[in-house]
Amino acid sequence: MLTKRPSSERGHISHGWLxxxxxxxxxxxHDPAHVHFRSLRVINEDxxxxxxxxxxxxxxxxxxxxxxxxxxxxxxxxxxxxxxIRPGDVQRMTAGTGVIHxxxxxxxxxxxxxxxxxxxxERHSLTPSYEQRTFNDQDKRNTLCRIASHDGQNDSLQxxxxxxxxxxxISDGAVLTHHxxxxxxxxxxxxxxxxxxxxxxxxxxxxxxxEDEHEIRIEERENxxxxxxxxxxx
Length: 234
Prior knowledge:
Elements: E1 2-5, E2 11-14, E3 18-22, E4 40-48, E5 53-59, E6 63-70, E7 73-77, E8 82-85, E9 89-94, E10 99-104, E11 112-119, E12 129-134, H1 137-140, E13 145-149, E14 157-158, E15 163-171, E16 175-179, E17 185-192, E18 194-197, E19 200-203, E20 207-210, E21 215-220, E22 225-233
């Protein structure tokens, strides 16, 4: 079963310096029909204006993945990590027993565009930790590039939950397939462009949940390119 969630139905909040869309309930946006999907709790599409950002704030008991689409984001945390993440970079933070961090756009003029993803961990009170990897466009071109997984295979970021996260840039009418083991589900979020999943058409900001499907067929249908994330969830 495939259930489409159109971009226009997402929660939307603008704070001036922050323009954000929430696929699932978050902060002041609450939709009881879209609180989470399996272990996937948050997909926020954020655009942070130059010089804007989130001051030091706490998290705990969550796996947090940041995927940079364009621009740069400066990160600082209570574990001592300091750095700037750029397009192609993916950051994983295990909040565990508690971590405090800040996220700022260091550019005075350029907007940073990103996806922030939260996934429930397999258990509480983990030791906080941090990882960062670069996956360039060629790594993702017309393939499902594993960027995060429970066992860290294929040099992916290691997350403490039964899930795999794939990133892809699909172009020129390419077709990708993904098989689900019985009992697992999936979620696909379109970052840009247009594609179809088992014949269901999706464009930027749309997403689709996947249950009781043995296989999905992902096709780029606009003679250009599309970028998306695919979650395989236990």
